[in-house]
Amino acid sequence: PEISQGHLQAMFEFQTAMSELTGLPVSNAALYEGPSSVASAGYLAIGATGRRRFVVSRGVHPHSRETLATYSEGYRAEIAEVDLRTGVTDADALADAVDEDVAAVFLQTPNFLGAIEDVAALAERAREAGALVVVAVDPITLGVLRPPGECGADIALGEGQPLGGRLDYGGPSFGFFCATEEHLRRMPGRIAGETVDVDGRRGFVLALQTREQHIRREKATHNICTSQALNALGGIVYLSWLGKQGLVELGELMVRRTAYARERLTAVDGVAPLHEGPVVRELAVRLDAPVDQVLDRCAAEGIAAGYPLGREYPEYEDGLLVAITERRSKADIDRLADALARAVAQTADSGQQTAEVVRS
To answer: Which of 184, 117, 183, 171 is nearest to 146 (CA)?
Structure first.
């Protein structure tokens, strides 16, 4: 199906880079995006274990949890969610939820609240029960965080947009999927391999094809009809441009700026940290004023201050998720903190005046 050597080499180089990033030996040639990669890991886990129960941390991105739940209807799989405690997965609750019927445990680090999970500790209980450990990761943080493959993960996957991708109304993007060697033949999508032709020249082939249009449907492990290879090519170009040292420097830059943002924002009256755990490029805070109103006031100043956590987490109705990228300078962070301070104060004053009018 694929004979273009340029196309195949781009896929091969992408696979190599993702394997190096995640610390796992096998990578496919990309999927649609992060959430469908999570769902594909569920199907792989069912085939590998013969079990049909998943344990999922609430720290996993809500879109990924929704996609896994949708696919699980077809897989006839049951899902149990584990709550968060102090910003990270409740280790005791996870241990209680994992038994010999669980096919896979799904984690994310940094999680949706921006907190770094102790994947190695959480993975230990899953492995004792014979369940696979699936870890969603932000690839841009892997220059400074320990790779999931070194923490006991069987599968590492995620959203590729941070690797130089644009945010054009939600896309386009790509998903990545890496695993241990034993799961090679259950991997979704395509895998490009390196070979030598009859004249001894280096060449590339499509080594594994697990999609319905390539092999008999009953043997297929995947039904998505594109690998998003063009977007994955953009990701490998970005990683090549950064280089190994550049990726580390970028990660360290984001850690410093996120730490500064956390310090500046939580110094504002009416703003407090939602958790105290270490963060890399996203942080969650609590507001003493209605979050939507605060965001509207910031938007009036031309600032998208963050994402209201209450949309996905009712227990964090007062929560705001703030993202810091490499493009945000110290001056940008100061501007955000000042705007947030004004918005919180104005919203609180407005609420107090409304209350007084009602009492009158």
So the answer is: 117
Whether this prediction's pTM lies above 0.85 is answered by: yes
Task: Give the mean pLDDT of 200-212.
Answer: 81
Integer Cα distance of 119 and 137 in angstroms: 11
What would the two tokens of residue 315 be? 């227990």
DSSP string, 226-237: ---HHHHHHHHH
**With contact defined as beta carbons under 8 Å apart, do 125 and 9 qualify?**
no
Q: Which two tokens stand for residue 210?
A: 């697990």
Query: Residues 10, 30: contact at Cβ < 8 Å?
Result: no
CA torsion sign, 284 to 286 to 292 to 295? negative
15-42 tens-digit pLDDT: 999 999 999 999 999 888 999 999 999 9
How many whole angstroms separate alpha carbon 292 and alpha carbon 60?
A: 23
Q: Name the helix (H) or strand (E) containing 15.
A: helix 5-22
